[in-house]
Specification:
The chain has eleven helices and twelve strands. By secondary structure, the chain is an alpha/beta fold. It folds into two domains: 199 residues, Isopropylmalate Dehydrogenase (3-Layer(aba) Sandwich), CATH 3.40.718; 136 residues, Isopropylmalate Dehydrogenase. It is globular, with a radius of gyration of 20 Å. The relative contact order is 0.17. It binds nicotinamide-adenine-dinucleotide, 3-isopropylmalic acid (IPM) and manganese (II) ion (MN). Pfam families: Iso_dh.
Length: 360
């Protein structure tokens, strides 16, 4: 039987709740579709940091390297600085495994209450550059305790890094409506962005049938709120893509429903799947987190593993539950995480309908 080794890192806060739901659903699907998932559960989180001074073991990356994929909940907790939790776990995984594409699809799910009023349709994929750009390690804080104290961080955009993100996004746009929106800020202020535009334009030219429309990030933010149906596929830098993906999720109802796939497209290293949201300390421990983003991310993982039918069963099950009016409080429903999960699990046992959406 087909067996996949998946490293599961529940992390902190609601990361733990939503990962638990996702693993239950994947196990149920595995049984029904005839494959096995061997979970390697990793307790790599803020508690481990408090005990050992590290978010993951020294050889953590090596431990993940022979798996078929990584599934992450979220990390971050109020009493540990975010730079410790993030630079100690999430960012090294993205970088060491060269997961240079962060794919963040969003659709208007049927039954969702709380999407932007007036929206009847929305189908957007944000292709986020995931290992360079604004998220660089060059810089820091200087002159602490003096009047001249300052902080600086250099953005680093490489031709190779921009081109491969643009290429991935253009290929995806070619399968969609042929229109790619490039998020930019090249109106004379940010030095890196004319370079971004140039490399994106050169790259997209090589993909037949795709046209690129560069849109300034500030105007794009407004357009995504006011006319979200006018955009299908977006390519964006690390920081812009981060912001836009929460924005689009908010327009579609909640950041609790947004999934993400951190991909190494060449499959030289494992890819990582996670909800877009964080550890949500404000609702952690209350049992009310929305597991849809985590489930959708799990569906993207199943698709990546080649388990297309299982992936479709999962997306259609979580959407069917929403369509039947079962939802957590972020979507104006009254279900707890466990109640919603039970509804999804029961729908996984039913045969999938004919018209099931793909994970992306
Ligand atoms: P957040 O995404 O955790 O929460 C933002 C808001 O959305 C909160 O009000 C929260 O309750 C709500 N929310 C988020 N996910 C939800 C869900 N599934 N169901 C219902 N409501 C949900 O962002 P934040 O508050 O800015 O960050 C909290 C911590 O998470 C920080 O430490 C941050 O660094 C970390 N973080 C981690 C990741 C990650 O591990 N990939 C991603 C984002 C933020
Ligand atoms: C995300 C998160 C991370 C990011 C943070 C937690 C570093 O917001 O995955 O969207 O900015 O990439
Ligand atoms: Mn984010």
């Amino acid at each position: 039987t087909r067996t996949y080794v998946i490293d599961s890192i529940p992390g902190d806060g609601i990361g733990v709740d939503v990962t638990d739901v996702a693993m239950q659903c994947v196990d149920a699907l595995a049984e029904r579709h005839g494959f096995t998932v061997q979970w390697r559960i990793r307790d790599w989180n803020s508690d481990l940091y408090r005990k050992t001074g590290r978010m993951m073991p020294v050889d953590g990356i090596e431990q993940l390297s022979d798996g078929d994929g990584i599934y992450l909940g979220a990390v971050g907790t109020p009493d540990v600085p975010d730079d410790v939790t993030l630079w100690g776990l999430l960012i090294p995984i993205r970088r060491e495994f060269d997961q240079y594409i962060n794919l963040r699809p969003m659709r208007l799910l049927s039954g969702v209450v709380g999407a932007m009023p007036g929206i009847e349709e929305l189908d957007i994929v944000v292709v986020r550059e995931n290992v360079e750009g604004e998220y660089s390690q060059i810089g820091g804080r200087f002159g602490s305790g003096t009047d001249g104290e300052f902080a600086v961080q250099e953005s680093v955009f490489t031709r190779k890094g921009v081109a491969r993100a643009a290429r991935y996004a253009a290929d995806l746009a070619a399968e969609r409506d042929g229109r790619l929106v490039s998020a930019t800020k090249s109106n004379g202020i940010i030095h890196t962005m004319p370079f971004w535009d140039e490399v994106v334009a050169e790259t997209v030219k090589e993909v037949p049938g795709v046209v690129v429309d560069k849109v300034l990030i500030d105007a794009l933010a407004a357009r995504l709120v006011m006319k979200p149906t006018s955009v299908r596929t977006i390519v964006a830098s690390n920081l812009f893509g981060d912001i836009l993906s929460d924005l689009v999720a908010g327009v579609a109802g909640s950041i609790g429903i947004a999934p993400s796939a951190n991909l190494n497209p060449e499959r030289r290293y494992p890819s990582m799947f996670e909800p877009v949201h964080g550890s949500a300390p404000d609702i952690a421990g209350k049992g009310i987190a929305n597991p849809v983003g985590a489930l959708w991310a799990a569906a993207m993982m199943l698709d990546h593993l080649g388990e297309k039918d299982a992936s479709k069963s999962l997306t259609s099950a979580f959407e069917a539950a929403l369509a039947d009016g079962i939802a957590t409080s972020d979507l104006k429903g009254s279900a707890t995480t466990a109640e919603y999960a039970a509804e999804v699990l029961s729908r996984l046992k039913e045969p999938a309908g004919p018209q099931v959406p793909e994970a992306i």
